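Subject: complex prediction, re-run

Hi both,

The earlier run crashed halfway through, so I resubmitted it with identical inputs.
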Amino acid sequence: MIFVTVGNHFQGFERLLEKVDEIAPRLPHEIVVQKGYSKYVPKNTKHFDFVPSNTALDYIRNSDLVVSHAGMGTIILCREHGIPILIFPRREKFGEHVNDHQLEIAQVLEKRGDPNTYIVYEEDQLEEKIIEAAGKKEIVQLENKGKESLIRTIKEFIEAFQG
Amino acid sequence: MKRNQKIGLICSHGGHFVELLQVREAFDGYPAFLLTYKEVSTLNQKNAYYIANIGKNPVAFIFGVFKIFFILLKERPTVLFSTGSEIAIPPFYFGKFLFGTKLIYLESCAQIFRPSMTGKWVYPITDLFLVQWEPLLKEYGSKAKYVGGLV
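This time it finished cleanly. Structure:
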């Protein structure tokens, strides 16, 4: 299964949904779309607007590939569970977000070259990249030292003023 | 030994909510409550207070601020922790100036080069201010700390 998700942002992400709907009949995978506040209603795939976080996590964990806007929630969960993610950032110029921080996130992650992380900037490259990425599902569990440091720092801070 | 602390965990929905759950275990062993937006994606959480999105309109903002005040009055947290976004601003100011609460803020990992609006609001009053990308340190000030990020 390929899970396509655009998160909770109040603006729609029509470019991604329209392209996914166009290529869906040509893909061998079942496709499920979380469309959020987008207006476009997919004709060729299963879709819903929002689900509780644990249901979204179930979709992610059962996916061969997650195709997502550059939303941190989805990126974090894919990394945590070793699921391949293809990131297609929302752009300000198309009215998909209030600024271009998603583009910055995509560029930084691309530069870092994490395993299992695919970045696409133009919608006409989506089909090729989705086929490539979904074809080689490989669970890559990354260690998360940053998370451990954050937890330790917060814990120590609270303990320090316990008295 | 874990004495007399009570933790208020505050976040909006979406990535902020995911980030908060990622570091939730830092508060294991302490009594805690969650304050978040009432959205499909945040449903079914334990010890949770839900408010309508205060960023949407002035009426929701005023109602939300009152509700937040009464939640703090009832719960009397000693520590407030937030991963953003704007839902953190009223409780942080109430906590700081009315309840003597310690404040911990974790800037979202979506902020790489530019501070968030919420981060700028709460930075001056926050006791432990964490950013998840190094370039952001110089955008805030000497109080900001970088020890790593969730991605």
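The CA atoms of residues 78 and 122 of chain A lie 22 Å apart.

- K.
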